[in-house]
Structure formats: structure tokens, C-alpha cells
Design goal:
By secondary structure, the chain is mainly alpha-helical. It contains 13 helices and nine strands. The strands form four sheets. A three-stranded antiparallel beta sheet has the order 5-6-7, with no helix packed on it. A two-stranded antiparallel sheet has the order 1-2. The radius of gyration is 20 Å and the shape is globular.
Length: about 400
């Protein structure tokens, strides 16, 4: 009986409308409140199913089993980050305790120099923890994480190396893969400069963003997934994909990472070129002829079987969250459009087609995420980062409504 009232409230408030029919958000305030209440229910349930020392990645419906990882997986920070966001929305001792336990298991990753994903891992977790309840130990962990991330910077390429190798592409010893996802890890470096006064972190972030802007983006502002550089010269060797439909395609989540990343770049630097880049990416996405009616993108904007291709709810959650922030930074004429699109996407994500019912979906919120279609992993399934950015989008919506 513990969650009976919350279960009934969430079930009653979430609309059963077809997500493709209504362009105007219908009772979005109520849907967001219900979505956050549902999140608390789901993540209490998810926590009860997650083994000690593990981090939930996804759920397999056929076997009713969670897939989890250790703390070194790139998604490990999303679970505690989502718990912290939900506790921020409505204080919940159970969720906060789960978050603290998960944070404890992540501490050692501050010294992990083998990954570029320390922003995802440490800033989505400890960054939120420090924002909500500042502690000297959080400062230390975040600064060490930024130092570890900085060791992956290559001065020749003026970029942070993503993977140490790319066996799927038979990358040579001197080849340095950089993925568009890496834009999401720069926020940690900006924090480090503000905290420590050391501008080297800031310079690395700016160099990486400028190099990515130059080499990852095509004339239409779509992005390659992977650019491989020569470590010794910094020259571009290849522009390819690993998770997209083709080297020349626009992998949806990659476009989302780019949009979000350049919104952060403008917020942190106030350099107008980053605002312009973010707006160009947003306009590419929102005006794309292959964007579905519900604006929840197909897993790739050039997927071969459109309109029968799978949608990617995780990409939509990231885009919606980024658009909410972009709407606060853009000029008035642009801002209104970005906010309207963000609300429309969020409204559709908060319908039963994408949002799980209580105590289903393994405890995750969003259904129909697509992790890596070409390699057939995490296809049409919940994803921890989809939930994180969905909850973030809901909180951003609420904050904007309360202004």
C-alpha cells in the first residue's frame, strides 16, 4: 500500500491521447507533475531491483531482467543523476539514499583516464549532488575528474580523444577517434575553471568545440558521428559512423548531443558563434522532412526504412531538454518557436506510447529508446540516459513555468 496513492494519481493524470494528434500541449503542467510522481515510483522500484554496486543500463522485457554495469561504464552517472533530479522535484529520503549509495560506488572513477565520458559519469552525478548540496569532497572529486579528462586532450588535433581504439574500423596506432557525443563532457571542464581559476580547462573545452564545429558538421549542419584524426599531425583521416545508418547519415542521438553541447558552449562562454551553431543544428532537426509528426525522431534521420523505422525516445528527451534551455538564450522570435517545439516533444514523451506504466519497464520511465542499431544492442528498449534527460526536461519546463 506504500505507493497506492501515488500510483493512482500518476495513472489518472497521464493522458491516454494519441501522441501524433495534438500539436498543442494538452495539460502539460499536469502531465509533468504526474511524470515526476511516476519517476519517484519507478526509481524506487528500479532501485529495489538493482544489485548492490551495479548501475542500471536497460531492461529486457522478454526475460524480465535488468542489464546493469559497473561504475566504469559511460552511463553509470545517469542513475544517481536521475535520482537526484527526482529528489529535487519532491524530497524523497528513499531516492536520496539510493543516490548516495550510487555516488559512493562512482568515486574511484575520478581517476579514470581511459574514457572521455567523465562528464556523463561524474558531472551528471556529482555535479548535480554538488549543485544541490555543496560539499568539499564533491569539489575534490569533480576537479580530479576534470584533470583526468584533460589528459585525453591532443594539442595537435586540438581535441579530446574519445576512444583509445576503434577495432570495428581497424583504426591504426596513430588514429584518434573523436565522437560527437564528446561535446557533452565539456561542461565538467567549464566547472573546473570556475572552481579552480585554472583556465587550461576552459581552453581545452573551447578548442574541442571549435575543432568539432569545423570537422564534424556538414553544410546543412548535420553531424558525422565519428571523426578520426592523425595523432601526430592533427589531420582529419576519416569521417564515419559507428551507430548511425551510414557515414553520410544524421544519426539522431548524435544530432541531439551536438545541439545540447553547443547550447552549453554558449551558456558558458557567451560567444555568439556557439549560439548560432546551436540554432543551426536545432533548425536542421526541427525542419527536417523526415521528422515524424510527433517530433520524436527516428533513430537516424536517414534510416533506410522510414516511415517504418524505430523512433528514439532518448534522442527526443535530449533535444527537448536542450531546446528548453536554448529558448532562454535565443532572441525572442526564435525563443518562442524553440519552446513550443520542446513542449510539444515533452508532451508526446509523456503519453502512454512512450511513458511506462507504474511498476513496468523494469522501473525505467521511457520506452522505445535505440542505443546502437547497427550492432543490434539496446534496440527499442529503455535507456538510462533517456530517463535522465526526460526528467531534466520536465524540471526545466517547471522552472520556466514558475518564472
Amino acid at each position: 500500500m506504500k505507493y497506492l496513492f501515488m500510483l493512482l494519481a500518476a495513472a489518472n493524470l497521464i493522458s491516454c491521447a494519441d501522441p501524433k494528434k495534438e500539436e498543442k500541449a494538452d495539460n502539460l503542467d499536469q502531465k509533468v507533475e504526474a511524470g515526476l510522481k511516476l519517476g519517484a515510483i519507478q526509481y524506487a522500484y528500479l532501485g529495489s531491483r538493482t544489485p548492490s554496486g551495479r548501475y542500471p543500463k536497460t531492461y529486457h522485457e522478454k526475460t524480465d531482467s535488468l542489464e546493469t554495469s559497473d561504475s566504469g561504464w559511460w552511463c553509470s552517472g545517469f542513475y544517481p543523476g536521475t535520482l537526484l533530479y527526482l529528489n529535487e522535484a519532491a524530497p524523497n529520503p528513499e531516492l536520496k539514499q539510493q543516490a548516495n549509495v550510487a555516488l559512493g560506488g562512482l568515486e574511484n572513477e575520478q581517476f579514470n583516464k581511459s574514457t572521455h565520458d567523465l562528464g556523463f559519469m561524474m558531472f551528471c552525478s556529482f555535479g548535480n549532488a554538488n549543485r544541490l548540496e555543496p560539499k568539499p569532497e564533491y569539489d575534490t572529486i569533480l576537479l580530479n575528474s576534470a584533470k583526468s579528462l584533460s589528459t585525453r586532450y591532443n594539442a595537435k588535433a586540438k581535441s579530446i580523444q574519445s576512444w583509445d581504439s576503434a577495432p570495428w574500423n581497424k583504426a591504426g596506432a596513430n588514429e584518434m577517434p573523436v565522437i560527437i557525443d564528446n561535446m557533452m563532457n565539456l561542461e565538467l571542464l567549464f566547472w573546473a575553471t570556475k572552481f579552480s581559476g585554472d583556465s587550461s580547462f576552459y581552453k581545452i573545452a573551447v578548442d574541442h568545440a571549435n575543432t568539432t564545429m569545423k570537422n564534424h558538421f556538414r553544410k546543412d549542419y548535420s553531424s558525422f558521428h565519428v571523426v578520426i584524426y592523425d595523432k601526430n599531425s592533427g589531420a582529419v583521416v576519416k569521417q564515419i559512423t559507428n551507430q548511425g545508418a551510414a557515414d553520410s547519415s544524421a544519426w539522431a542521438r548524435g544530432q541531439a548531443w551536438g545541439l545540447y553541447g553547443y547550447v552549453v558552449m554558449y551558456r558558458e562562454t557567451k560567444d555568439k558563434k556557439y549560439l548560432q551553431q546551436a540554432q543551426h543544428i536545432a533548425d536542421f532537426l526541427l525542419n527536417h522532412p523526415n521528422l515524424p509528426e510527433d517530433k520524436i525522431p527516428y533513430w537516424d534521420f536517414n534510416a533506410p526504412n522510414i516511415p517504418n523505422a524505430l523512433h528514439d525516445s532518448s534522442a527526443a528527451a535530449i533535444i527537448a531538454s536542450a531546446l528548453f534551455e536554448l529558448s532562454t538564450l535565443a532572441s525572442d522570435a526564435k525563443a518562442a518557436g524553440y519552446r513550443k517545439d520542446a513542449e510539444f516533444m515533452l508532451n508526446n514523451l509523456l503519453t502512454p506510447h512512450y511513458l511506462a506504466s507504474p511498476k513496468t519497464n523494469g522501473g525505467f520511465l521511457l520506452m522505445h529508446g535505440v542505443g546502437n542499431m547497427p550492432n543490434q544492442t539496446e534496440v527499442d528498449t529503455p535507456l538510462s540516459y533517456g530517463d535522465y534527460y526526460l526528467v531534466e526536461a520536465m524540471l526545466r519546463y517547471k522552472k520556466m513555468q514558475n518564472r
